Amino acid sequence: MEKIVVKGVKELKGEVNISCAKNSILPIIAATILCPEPIVIEDTPKLEDVDVICKLLSELNCDVNISNVNNRLTIDTKNIVEMDANTELMRKMRASFLIMGPMLARFGYCKLSLPGGCNIGSRPIDLHLKGFKLLGADIIMGHGFVEVKAKKMIGSRIYLDFPSVGATENIMMASVFAEGTTIIENAAEEPEIWDLAQFLNKMGAKIKGAGFGKITIEGIKSLKGISYRPICDRIEAGTFMIAAAITNSKLKINGVNEEHLRPVIEKLKECGVKFSEYINNSVIVDGRATKKPLDIKTLPYPGFPTDMQAQMMSLLSIVEGVSVITETVFENRFMHVAELQRMGANIKIDGRTAIIEGAQKLTGCEVKATDLRAGAALILGGLVAEGETEISDIYHIDRGYVEIEEKFRRLGAEIYRINV
Ligand code: EPZ
Fold this sequence. Notes:
Elements: E1 2-7, E2 13-17, H1 22-31, E3 39-41, H2 48-59, E4 63-67, E5 72-76, H3 87-92, H4 100-107, E6 109-113, H5 126-134, E7 138-142, E8 145-149, E9 157-159, H6 165-174, E10 181-185, H7 191-203, E11 206-208, E12 214-218, E13 227-228, H8 234-246, E14 250-254, H9 262-271, E15 274-279, E16 282-286, E17 295-298, H10 309-316, E18 322-327, H11 335-342, E19 346-350, E20 353-357, E21 366-368, H12 372-384, E22 388-392, H13 395-400, H14 404-409, E23 414-419
Helix pairs in contact: 1-2, 1-7, 4-6, 5-6, 6-7, 8-10, 8-12, 10-12, 11-12
């Protein structure tokens, strides 16, 4: 079994390059199903989740190739088949469910195993199915599968009870060829939604309003092959900003869109972190000043991202004073608290609220990554804990962070992967 070992307490220095966004490239790869011509995606991040969705497309008889030159991913879905997608792969990554919208748009049919829940919540798909139904699809559920079929997709007005990222993406893709106009109201506004729409429009789709609460899709006949580079990963960038803060270091981070990270930057500024020299998507993050406690509530974009909640909790665990974090997006996203408590963090949970009494220091010990961002939070804790922190179940981390220990090692951290 692989583990990551981190030796604290080290100041970091230098610069780090942020990879392309996991949560952009997954829906973009799913969207290639809409186009029978070859698509090239540049700078594809080497991530477990990218491997899973590429394997899924290969099993549907698509040609999927990645070259070392520029990590160039080429996908040709010309010969795609309609067979039922591999249950085991579907269960492995819920984002696989994002192929349902494009399969429905291209074939008028799709049958997938229901995506599992995960450690952070039940992860329902009711809003995805509500959109498909309003677009003219019949939904059949049973035996752990969901089947959608439609003789003809008709544009419709779809209101999302919650601005679900996945539902917005799946419905946007399902409606690309629908007759007439589709309007998605109370749509998710995350930058990755904007990126997916940019990708689809470059292929010839007619989508307006992505990144805002109301998205309009005019149905078209077909799409053409293109090449595309997704946006940088704002959550990876935010993770390294917190690394600078938690280790009292000054770092240069390359691949930062200030607008996409506004909620994280504003909260870190409130905490005492300084940001300067925003030049060509790079920023200097100075975390050397004394930090102040914070009150944070996670919200859909443009609120504070739930995907940064665990990492922020690691920082606030060593900031003197009482901080409060309220998780409003997922119902069970405090699994990392027990692990941070093992390291000496003083955290109390009251429903969806965590009250953090900043401890003087954390101490290294054996801990377990319980989900992707919790794993990153434990690495951050390990960077400032006295002694060694040994993190197991690191497959969670490999799902969403490219070569994380190499990137931290290049900043001077004592961190390495072991096989036990
Ligand atoms: C995406 O998940 C991201 N994953 C998640 O990132 C991220 O945490 C989440 O959006 C919120 O920003 C990808 O983009 C691959 P949602 P998604 O649908 O689409 C409820 C990471 O660490 N909901 O916006 O699954 C749901 O229960 C991962 O990179 C319904 O009720 O998130 C949850 O409470 C973790 N019905 C809330 O919406 C539905 O049909 C947010 O879920 C769908 C969702």
